[in-house]
Every structure is written in C-alpha cells, then in structure tokens.
Write a structure and sequence with these properties.
single chain, about 425 residues, alpha+beta, Sulfite Oxidase, Chain A, domain 2, Immunoglobulin-like, 2 domains, 5-stranded mixed beta sheet, 5-stranded antiparallel beta sheet, 9 helices, about 20% helix, about 30% strand, globular
C-alpha cells in the first residue's frame, strides 16, 4: 500500500502539535505546583561517593517477631518490603535478614576460608584468592524456611497485616562468586567424602551440614551482591549461596568447610530448624532441602487501599526451588475462576519471577489470590491441601502455631468496599479455601 508523503507529514505535524500542547499544559501545571509548594532549604552537597535515596522514599525493613526477651537473644531478624519492590531484584539495603548471633566485623585483608577434612590438600583461600578465580553471577532467591508461617496470620503475639509482615522472609539478588565445586576440586575430595559441614564466623559459630551432591551441582561461594560487596548483615566478606534450598544452608560469614562422610546434624539443625509434624507421628524430619513452588500478589496487598473503582494492575512474585516458573494464574473471586497472568522477563531458575494481570475493580468485595506452577509441574497448593498433607485441619491448629516450615499455601487478600485489603488466609465464612 502506497502512502503519500504529504499525508505522512501532515500526520506528523498533528502529532507534534498535540505533543507540544500537552507539554505546555504539563509545564503550566508544574509552575502552579512549584508556586504552591512549601519552600525548603536546599543544602549543597556532593558529589556523593555513595548516593542517598530520595527523602520521600520510605521503603524499609521491619522486625519479624514480637518485642521482648526473645529479640535480645537473636541477631537481626528483619523482613523485606515486598509490597514496595519493583522488578525481581531486592535492593541489598532492604534484603531480609535472619541471624542467630551478633554480626562479626571481619577485616577483608585478614579473611581466610579453610577447606579441610577428607581432602588431599587442606587449603586456605583469602578473599583475593577467591576474587582472582573465574567468577559467575547468578540471580537466585533466598527464603527463610519459616517464612509465611501460618501462625503469623492472626497469632495473638503478632500484629501482622502486610505482605511484608507475613511473607517478607525472602529476597532475590544477583550473586557473584566462585562455584564451590572449583574449590573442592582444587582441594581434592577423597573417596567417601559425601557431606560438608559449613561453619560461620559469627559469635555462635553457626554450623550447617550440606550434601556433597548439592555442593558439586550449583552451590556458590559468593562475595558480591547486586554489583557490590556483600553487606555485613548478608555475610560480608564471604558467604555460601545454595540455590533453591532453604535459607539456613546459605551460611553467612563463611569461615570453614569440612569434608566428612556423614551428616553431623549440628545444634542449629537439630534444635533451631527441626519442627514436629502431625503426619510424622509428632516426629521431625532431619532435613528440609528444596523450597516449594510459591507465589504472592504484592500489589495490591494487605495494608494497602484502592483509591476507588477503576483500572488496576495486579502484580506479584513467584519462585520455586525446583527451577523455572512456567505459569502463574490469578483469581479475583477467591479461586472460583482463574486467569493466566503475564510473565515478565527475564525468567531465571530458582529466582523471583514477576507476574502481572490487568484488573478493573467494580467497587464490590473481591478476593485476590495467585497460584504458580513450576517447570517440574508442581502446582502451588491451597491452605487446605497443605493441611491435608500435614494431617491437620487448617483452621483448627495453625492459627496458634508460630512456625510451619516450607509453608507455600496460596495467599488470599480480601478487598472490602472501602478499597482496603486484608489478610484472608483463614476462612471465617465456612466456604472452601482457594
């Protein structure tokens, strides 16, 4: 089809004319706003060696537990602001924190990582040694094994209402470091060396056991996070990154790794991370490894408020320790009907995946919920399905339990007519859960 040049120029002139008028209108509005805004003192500073964020940005972490003696016994425990995050990368300053002791202050010039035990050559690696080796950068999520514990939803000790309060024990970063397999091969693992015991340099000498097979597959010894050195509360100068597995395996402030022939079941594993389960006759599993498929709607979500009927974009995060997220479905009626959400790229294995769905709110009550499926075919379960697997009734026992590891039930947000969003994990109306 032939287009006349005159028509093209005319259309372009009309477009530019409309754009100019829009620009003038915007400029005029800006002048009015500037005249009406309150004057403030501008202090000349800079250039900044490390830039500050805008004074209008309030995005930050929150504590994960009630105030009291329990808080003093542990190191920092803070949740990431999932409801304020955009994209899939969590800024390092607001990455969630779980620590079991006080944070060490390690001089990088004096740092050494010892690998010993059932090896041909016990070796010490300085930070400079690690940084000279061929590096890799990968995007992976980290999640506390007790994140989203059902007891947080309405437990009398807690007053949690937002997605950050309920599910903020997870974050996602780009991690830079050396594959652990490279270091182990350099040391020469002896026959029968099937487990690793990793020890932290914190005050409590936090210790965790890791199978050799996982270590040789994709575990990293990392020194970088989101393009800069690790933050102190993320393990500076060196930590483990165990992709897809629960957070406790990714030992921070990594001091030494011992190759052994059996699991040690260290104190931190036996006492801090073993929970009795009804489906096991009140016995506890020795080990929990891979984090299950999971998703959350982060905007709009608990504690937020819609400004009135109209168009909104539902947005959230999905992840799985098994690998890629293959699809996410979203329901606005509590799971009666589902729509396929749009997956935003890039999509990485064992990483956050951002999903969105356009939605027009009519001003009536609604129930927002998401459901993820990973590349293995695992589908995120409802709370009733999770409870059935555990051999309990969801509404009877979990509301008074503070912890339930690997909890990945679908999260329901109830939208009331005033536009406010509320946690609706537990059903109070008698109908089935989504």
């Amino acid at each position: 089809m032939e287009t006349k040049s005159g028509d093209s120029r005319s259309g372009r002139r009309k477009f530019l004319g409309r754009a100019a008028l829009a620009g003038l209108a915007a400029g005029a509005a800006g002048k009015v706003q500037a005249a009406e805004s309150e004057p403030r003192e501008v202090k000349p500073k800079g250039p900044y060696p490390y830039a500050d964020r805008s004074r209008f940005v309030k995005m930050g972490r929150t504590n994960d537990y009630p105030k009291g003696p329990f808080q003093a016994m542990l190191g920092p425990r803070q949740n990431a602001p999932l409801g304020d995050q955009t994209g899939i990368i969590t800024p390092a300053p607001v990455h969630f924190v779980r620590s079991h002791s006080t944070l060490p202050d390690t001089d990088p010039a004096k740092y050494k990582l010892l690998i010993h035990g059932m090896v041909d050559r016990a070796l010490n690696f300085t930070l400079e040694d690690l940084q000279r080796l061929p590096s890799e950068a990968r995007v992976h999520f980290l999640e506390c094994q007790g994140n989203s514990s059902p007891g947080h939803h309405g437990h009398k000790k807690f007053d949690f209402v937002t997605v950050q309060d309920l599910h903020g024990g997870t974050s996602c970063s780009e991690w830079t470091g050396v594959p652990l397999s490279v270091l182990l091969k350099e040391c020469g693992v002896q026959k029968g060396g099937t487990w690793l015991v990793s020890e932290s340099d914190d005050a409590g000498r936090y210790t965790y056991t890791l199978p050799m097979a996982k270590a040789m597959e994709d575990v990293m010894v990392v020194y970088g996070q989101n393009g800069e050195p690790l933050r102190p509360d993320q393990g500076y100068p060196v930590r483990l990154m165990v992709p897809g597995w629960e957070g406790p395996y990714s030992v921070k402030w990594l001091r030494q790794i011992k190759v052994v022939d059996q699991p040690y079941m260290a104190w931190d594993e036996a006492m801090a991370h073993s929970i009795q389960r009804p489906d096991l006759g009140e016995k506890a599993r020795w080990y929990h490894f891979e984090m299950p498929v999971k998703s959350l709607i982060t905007r709009p979500s608990g504690g937020q408020q819609l400004k009135g009927p109209g168009f909104y974009e539902i947005s959230g995060l999905a992840w799985s320790g098994a690998g890629l997220i293959s699809k996410v479905e979203v329901s606005t009626d509590g799971g009666k009907t589902w729509k396929l959400a749009k997956i935003q790229g890039p999509v990485h294995k064992k990483s956050y995946t951002r999903f969105t769905l356009p939605w027009t709110w009519d001003g009536n009550e609604a129930m927002l919920v998401s459901r993820a499926t990973d590349e293995r075919g695992d589908v995120q379960p409802s709370i009733d399905q999770v409870a059935k697997n555990w051999g309990i009734k969801a509404d009877d026992e979990w509301p008074t339990a503070e912890h339930a590891f690997h909890f990945n039930a679908t999260q329901r947000w109830r939208v009331t007519k005033d536009g406010k969003l509320h946690d609706n994990m537990y059903n109070t109306s008698g109908s089935s859960h989504a």
